[in-house]
Amino acid sequence: MSAVRIFTAVLLSLAASAPATAQERRLPASQAEIKLSYAPIVQHAQPAVVNVYAAKVVQNRNPLLEDPIFRRFFGGGPQPEQIQRSLGSGVMVDPSGLVVTNNHVIDGADQVKVALADKREFEAEIVLKDSRTDLAVLRLKDTREKFATLELANSDELLVGDLVLALGNPFGVGQTVTHGIVSALARTQVGITDYQFFIQTDAAINPGNSGGALVDMTGKLVGINTAIFSRSGGSQGIGFAIPTNMVRVVIASAKSGGKAVKRPWLGARLQAVTPEIAETLGLKRPSGALVASVTKGSPSDKAGLRLSDLIVGVDGFAIDDPNAFDYRFATRPLGGTAQIDVQRGGKPLKLSITLETAPDTGRDEIVLTARSPFQGARIANISPAIADDLRLDPSVEGVVVTDLADGATAASVGFQKGDIIVAVNNKRIGKTSDLERITNESFRLWRITVVRGGQQINVTLGG
């Protein structure tokens, strides 16, 4: 028997012995099948994959001009401007000209252009940005034609070992296709975004691929390529994509006209289960999400979730850690309920949690303009929506920094988005008007108490 026939017989034997659930995924059974091409999938997907060009104007700040004596003798004329450009990819998801890309590709951009596979270019407006998922939605300007799109697959149906293609514009060389397999699913310890639940693939992904398409063998979109693990800056076979079930939530918010993504609000803080906690709870392995606190009046409170409950499932999906819970809960449709599997005192329990958005009343958001260490900071009262969005402890009193103007005093002295200002010069800060009033006063020294990442920090700054 020839080597080819022996090889074919082995493949057929392996296919016959595969589990029934994997019958649709089989190894090539003949030389003819080995010669099959991905070309039809690529030809279907290419027109819907675009290049995204973003540009923003920045001023070159001369550090000598920060010295008032230098300015007095040499003047402080206008600073020269420089244009910073970034390059990425995107996917057309609606025939009207709606494009999904990565937020980091267009963040801070003053101008965005989208180039199609046929080389045509369009100006684009930013419809929605979501830093928590690192996704953004663009819309092409001044066009009435219908564009080619990619259908979104159910990313929960992916299996490790499935073949996938990555399409994008790596290093700006032009649209490129690479292939590989799904190397892993539900990667939750990557540290890229708030919602960490990535598809891992060995399909080559490089700088410029960000925002591009990861497609399956039916030509459907299964993920948005977003990051790589690399020591060299190039592909080393470990790339990460945001699953389309999360992408679908962001697209729905953009189509509804919202400027922010609408997600279900749990109203509870969760923590990971360490080996020590698992031993205390009598668990065979450290898994699940442990309830560390419950906000009074929140959906979790109304559903009966309690401190020290262990969440192990959401609507039939197993939960290994808090990141997995965040993803599963955030991708549930608003308006219904989610069934939460809980272990309480070693006994299983099912709770039904209403899927509703967090209330965002009384935030009183303002930008501080008076000369002070806070100049250029946007601040707000801590509403449930802000606490949920910035992952803050809603029980902490104070006002939170929600944004910082580029080059402003607040950014230069070290304030960060998510900082909670608790006190200034021994005066408690309860609401935004308190901090605004204090910044209108003159002080030689500013003694500021800040809560960052749950830790209290005391700093002293010059006036």
From TrEMBL:
- Entries under InterPro entries matching the protein: PDZ (IPR001478), PDZ_sf (IPR036034), Pept_S1C_Do (IPR011782), Peptidase_S1_PA (IPR009003), Peptidase_S1C (IPR001940)
Residues of the signal sequence?
1-22
**A Gene Ontology MF term for this entry?**
serine-type endopeptidase activity
The segment(s) forming the PDZ domain are 248-346, 352-442
Instruction: Give the residues the record marks as binding substrate.
Output: 104, 134, 208-210
Keywords (alphabetical) are: Hydrolase, Protease, Repeat, Serine protease, Signal
SUPFAM superfamilies reported in the protein's UniProt record: PDZ domain-like, Trypsin-like serine proteases
Q: Does the keyword Protease apply?
A: yes
Regions that span the bilayer: none
UniProt-listed PROSITE patterns: PDZ
List the active site. 104 (charge relay system), 134 (charge relay system), 210 (charge relay system)
GO process annotations (BP): proteolysis
Family listed: Belongs to the peptidase S1C family.
Protein's UniProt name: Peptidase S1C, Do
Which species is listed as the source? Rhodopseudomonas palustris (strain HaA2)
